[in-house]
Design goal:
Strand content: 5-15%
Radius of gyration: 35 Å
Shape: elongated
Bound molecules: FE2/S2 (inorganic) cluster
Number of strands: 13
Distance between the termini: 42 Å
Mean pLDDT: 86
Structural class: alpha+beta
Length: 597
């Protein structure tokens, strides 16, 4: 238990001095925040370009607001700081990433992102570096539009490429972030429309603006006032900085990152390997790799909706080996695990964040094909737990006979009426219809209430079923010669509950001996010629004063000892038996020692 406390909970406690919203902040969240600052800049900038569709004057008018806002010292400082951090963290992410099995969108984002500084260099040199060195402060669209469209036309292609590249990079980043948000499902068509339309509108706007400028420069007075080209010696200095030294420095930084990756790979190989055991396979990987990276390296199917960014939690695994040597969860990992309700379980870790140093055995918790829709809907995966539940099986008698000389439509209709009558009774009493198999229904009670309440809910359900089916028989008296008959089995006990299934077809259900016994009790109603058999356990926990119920000892297949049960020929009597006496408070563990008198 001491070890358990040292895992997820420990990490959360370690960060508990911080406000909740700060606990989950890691490098990726900082990179995202910086990206958002830059996105707001380019959005407004491109919007400004698009206003050229209206007129050059409109562009100019908006530009004054744009310049006013972005030149406020704190805003200006935030923008440049965000750009520097975003680029640095991009290089850091390139270093950290252990594999290059990217999705196409991720590759596009990576390549486009790293090409932005090179494409931006010339424009940035004229608009910013010239200001820092020679005090040239840009105040109008006229010089760049004239310069690009008249003096250096190839720059139009460079600028349009830059616009497309920067916008696409930003939109892919936003998509990876927003697709996990619940509003994305309804908002994406609008967001997509903006993403698609803004670049062409910005290009058309600059074209229109440039055409107006080309006409305006024919007026010498206007030209003298607005067009003030950089003197060639100054231009040469700026070009040298932005088109020679900067690309060399930038390329060196990227080469350095790859060199550092190489050094790390060599060092990790020297440190040795560790084995990751999956349910059906074992792989050996160098120390330093995360569990998710091990899965990707060996193409082992593993859910990872956010691509290892510690956002989605879909990569989570259950550790089924010794956990004592595992590194503690980072603040971000603990935050994400707590957000999906598994923070208190130290055996659950994020595969994309966990980098073990010794052999480990894991079971991926979620299906590998889970998508962003699963995360958006905030579905909770029930990964399996043992708990006390009341199980009820209800089965229609003689459905085969019912189908004789009837159209398939009529048979399905009648069975649906029966299933509906049963399900209504279950939900009305507070239980959950869990599975429908043919003409049978399996229901669970006690998933969110105490044992006594669950048992009483099950008995009340039986009474309601009896009345609902009686009403059904009354309704179909003319169509169905023999009244619909049924059998009910109820038992309570510990069961394993969790999501069972394959790929998209999973169902939350219960398994275990107590469930099997309920099924067998239902089956035995045929032999004992009654409508309901419940175990003594249910009767006892429900606190029934039930002298009227026949007590029997029966042998259950697979059980050595005979089992005491109560046999009910008419479940409607349970309505009066369950109502008067409310359940007494239970002890903390939910035990109740009242006897079924
Ligand atoms: S892959 Fe999304 S949290 Fe690990």
């Amino acid at each position: 238990m001491a070890l358990q406390a040292s895992a997820n909970v420990g990490a959360i406690k370690a960060a508990s001095g911080l406000p909740t919203w700060l606990r989950g902040i890691g490098a990726r969240q900082v990179r995202l925040a910086c990206g958002l600052v830059m996105f707001s800049y380019i959005f407004l900038h491109f919007f400004n370009h698009a206003l050229g569709i209206i007129s050059f004057d409109t562009m100019e008018a908006w530009l004054q607001w744009h310049l006013w806002w972005w030149r406020i010292p704190v805003v200006n400082g935030t923008l440049y700081t965000a750009a520097a951090i975003h680029l640095s963290l991009g290089l850091w992410a390139l270093y950290q990433r252990r594999h290059f099995r990217y999705a196409a969108a991720e590759i596009a984002q990576l390549v486009l992102g790293f090409s932005i500084p090179l494409l931006l260099a010339s424009h940035f040199g004229v608009e910013r570096v010239a200001g820092w060195i020679y005090g040239r402060v840009p105040v109008s669209y006229a010089p760049p539009l004239f310069g690009y469209w008249v003096t250096r036309p190839y720059m139009v292609a460079v600028q349009f490429t830059l616009l497309t590249v920067a916008w696409t990079h930003a939109c892919i980043g936003l998509y990876f972030w927003l697709r996990l948000k619940s509003f994305f499902k309804w908002a994406w068509p609008m967001l997509f429309a903006v993403a698609i339309l803004l670049p062409p509108l910005a290009m058309i706007g600059t074209y229109h603006g440039a055409q107006e400028v080309i006409q305006l420069v024919k007026q010498p007075q206007w030209r003298a006032l607005h067009i003030n080209p950089i003197p060639p010696p100054q231009r040469a200095v700026i070009d040298q900085i932005t088109l020679f030294y900067f690309p060399i420095g930038y390329a060196a930084a990227i080469v350095l990152v790859f060199a550092a990756r190489g050094v790390r790979t060599v060092r990790e190989r020297r440190r040795g390997m560790f084995t990751v055991s999956y349910p059906h396979r074992q792989v050996r990987v160098p120390k330093g790799l995360s569990i998710l990276e091990a899965s990707l390296r060996f193409r082992i199917p593993h859910a990872s909706v956010c691509g290892g960014r510690a956002r989605c939690s879909t990569c989570r695994v259950r550790i089924v080996s010794d956990r004592s040597k595992l590194p503690r969860p980072s603040g971000r990992e603990a935050f994400v695990l707590a957000r999906v309700g598994v923070g208190a379980d130290p055996s659950i870790r994020l595969a994309c964040q966990l980098r073990p140093q010794s052999d480990i055995a894991v079971i991926p918790v979620l299906q590998p094909n889970i998508d962003a829709g699963f995360v958006r809907s905030k579905q909770r995966m029930h990964i399996g737990e043992e708990r006390y539940v009341v199980s009820m099986f209800v089965d229609m008698r003689g459905s085969t006979k019912l189908s004789e000389r009837r159209l398939p439509f009529d048979v399905v209709f009648l069975i649906n009426q029966f299933v509906e009558a049963i399900s209504q009774a279950i939900t009305e009493a507070g239980g959950q219809p869990n599975q429908f198999v043919g003409d049978g229904v399996f229901a669970l009670f006690g998933l969110d209430v105490d044992r006594a309440t669950a048992c009483r809910q099950a008995l009340r359900t039986a009474a309601l079923i009896a009345s609902n089916v009686a009403y059904l028989n009354h309704r179909f008296a003319t169509e169905v010669r023999d009244p619909i008959q049924y059998g009910i089995g109820i038992h309570a006990g510990e069961a394993i509950v969790g999501d069972i299934g394959f790929r998209g077809r999973t169902v939350f259900t219960a398994l275990g001996d107590s469930v099997n016994v309920a099924a067998r009790l239902q089956d035995m109603t045929k032999n004992l010629n009654c409508l309901l058999i419940m175990s003594e356990e249910v009767c006892k926990i429900a606190g029934l004063s039930a002298d009227v119920l026949t007590r029997r000892e029966i042998q259950i297949r697979g059980h050595d000892e005979p089992m005491t049960v109560r046999v009910v020929e008419d479940p409607t009597v349970l309505a009066s038996l369950t109502e008067p006496e409310p359940a007494e408070p239970l002890s903390e563990d939910g035990e109740d020692n009242r006897s079924c008198s």
